[in-house]
Specification:
The chain is of the alpha/beta class. The protein has two domains: about 1-140 and about 295-325, Medium-chain alcohol dehydrogenases, catalytic domain (Quinone Oxidoreductase, Chain A, domain 1, Alpha-Beta Complex), CATH 3.90.180; about 145-270, 3-Layer(aba) Sandwich (Rossmann fold). The chain has ten helices and 15 strands. The strands form three sheets. Strands 3, 4, 5, 6, 7, 14 and 15 form a seven-stranded mixed sheet that branches. It has a six-stranded parallel sheet with strand order 10-9-8-11-12-13. It has a two-stranded antiparallel ribbon with strand order 1-2. Helix 4 crosses helix 5. The termini are close together. The mean pLDDT is about 95.
Length: about 325
């Protein structure tokens, strides 16, 4: 089969199209013919080995110290068709249209993948695809949908609450806006000029162009801040958080851990650095909202598998609106 093999740590050029063996499912696995996958920020960070919270060394030790051997193929989410089932598989049959995540094993940048019928949290999740989405639209749901749902539930977002999303024009942000609106919140999205109209189209009540105004001095406060950008300015944005509110930081370093400890000791505010569990129950919840017309996928561009390196370069440009999808013919 064709696959994009991760040959080294570094630039998008380390992603090479190669012929590799088609996997064979174990008794508890299904073989999925992949029709679509995505390029996420997490894929790019792992490829570069530039990860938050000092994860680079553990990943290098696990995947391979000099080059990635244990994880030869990247890609975290997919949509496709069940091609073959192991003899102990009960949840799927040949021909089922499915979508989901691969877990820590990655492997979705390929024509085929084997996934367990009943995975644990580290092995991702797989369920029947929403009937009203294409493979391309479905592939872009799980990772960002999981994260957005986790943040909103943890903060107890409901009617009357106010949510600020920094870097709202990306994959997590576009789903967070829609989910927050579904839960009854008032949502403000922060991003660059060219993304503001898209933020309005998915339901943002207010949009802020960070290139034109310093919103940290606005005097507004929020019950939840989802910061997909992180890095700089966290301390300034924390003053926008209501006492008892949650600030979720997607990209964090050691200084943010120390800041979070200090904030928890000196105030009622909560600075959280954590990720969701990729369980089947939450993916089913997202699927039901999609089929009810509550959620939609925002796709910026699609690329064929052969142009994976180009797709990674665009993902790192900061111009991406919503999701980047890879089609596999």
């Amino acid at each position: 089969m064709k696959a994009i093999v991760w040959t080294n740590y570094g630039s998008p050029d380390v992603l090479q199209l190669q012929e590799v063996d088609t996997p064979v499912p174990r008794d508890n696995e299904v073989l999925v013919k992949i029709h679509a996958t995505t390029v996420t920020a997490g894929d790019c960070e792992v490829r570069r080995l530039e990860l938050p919270l000092g994860f680079s060394l553990p990943i290098r030790l696990y995947a391979g110290f000099l080059r990635p051997k244990r994880i030869p193929i990247l890609g975290q989410e997919l949509a496709g068709e069940v091609e073959e089932v192991g003899k102990h598989v009960k949840s799927f049959k040949k021909g089922d249209q499915v979508f989901g995540t691969t877990g820590f094993g990655f492997g979705a940048y390929a024509e085929y993948i084997c996934l367990p019928d009943e995975p644990d949290d580290a092995q991702g999740s797989l369920i029947i695809k929403p009937t009203n989405l294409t493979y391309q639209e479905a592939a872009a749901v799980p990772t960002a949908g999981y994260e957005a749902l986790h943040f909103l539930r943890k903060a107890g977002i409901r009617e009357g609450k106010k949510v600020l999303i920094v870097g709202a024009g990306g994959s997590i942000g576009t789903f967070a806006i829609q989910l927050a609106k579904h839960f009854g919140a008032e949502v403000t999205g922060v991003d660059s000029t060219e993304k503001l109209e898209m933020l309005r189209s998915v339901g943002a009540n207010q949009v802020i162009d960070y290139t034109l105004e310093d919103y940290t001095n606005s005097g507004q406060t929020y019950d939840l801040i989802i910061d997909v950008v992180g890095k700089r300015g966290v301390s300034r944005r924390l003053k926008l958080l209501e006492p008892g509110g949650y600030y979720f930081l997607a990209y964090a370093g050691l200084s943010h851990i120390i800041l979070g400890m200090w904030i928890s000791m000196t105030s009622q505010k909560k600075l959280k650095i954590e990720a969701s569990n990729q369980n089947k129950k939450d993916l089913i919840f997202l699927k039901e909202l999609i089929e009810a017309g509550v959620l939609k996928t925002v796709i910026d561009r699609t690329y064929p598998l052969e142009q994976m390196a180009e797709a990674h370069r665009y993902a790192e440009s900061g111009q991406k609106k919503g999701n980047l999808v890879i089609t596999i013919e």
